[in-house]
Input
Amino acid sequence: MTPAPDPRLICALDTPTIGEARVLVDRLGDAVGFYKIGLQLFAAGGMELARDLKAEGRQVFLDWKLHDIGATVEKASANLAGSGCDLLTVHARPQVMAAAARGVKGSGLKVLGVTVLTSLTADDVRADDHSLSPADLVALRVRQALDAGIDGVVSSPQEAARAREIARAAGRNDFLIVTPGVRPDGASLDDQARAATPSAALAAGASHLVIGRPITAAADPQAGARAIAESIAQL
Ligand code: C5P
Output
């Protein structure tokens, strides 16, 4: 009997077309039950794919990274809540997060705040008029996410431990910490600068792991996903 997919493992469907995404999902079969759809696929029919995946009983993470005036974010989040999807990202700004929390209220859609994009360096953060280091800016935005009443954040594995500590101190043991930048031991880093292994990311406090290329670019994606799931099965 094949084991049920690990609910903590989210595969990033960063394919150019919906057709390629569907082929990948078919190849992965029961090895993955949770998929992230990003902006690239959003612009190519991603919502339709999201609805199809939900109809097939899978979990779906809409990585739309919303950032707009509160009224617009609230209405967009409310519309997305009707899709039955599971996770939605917004930029971790207080007004944006509070608006998204209002928009999804009463639905099963959970909101994550994107703390600091992993592509930003300390110089970029300074140029953006922040006196804080990237790590301190992440911590500030985790506190603001907690205040806004959203469900969690996206952060690199390096910041997960501090985010978990802040959430725990606020009595929010259910707070989600979703980490990209995860690489199995020995895998190519691609463009991930601050990667951690799946078990290290979970040990640091991550609730979910977003993993793309180590699965999607593997010669056998299903075997790649199963190996990752096995490496965290005991945790
Ligand atoms: O690198 P990988 O293919 O595992 O990427 C999975 C997800 O991680 C991507 O969909 C993207 O959202 C995020 N990512 C990131 N920083 C990078 C590259 C990708 O946060 N440098």
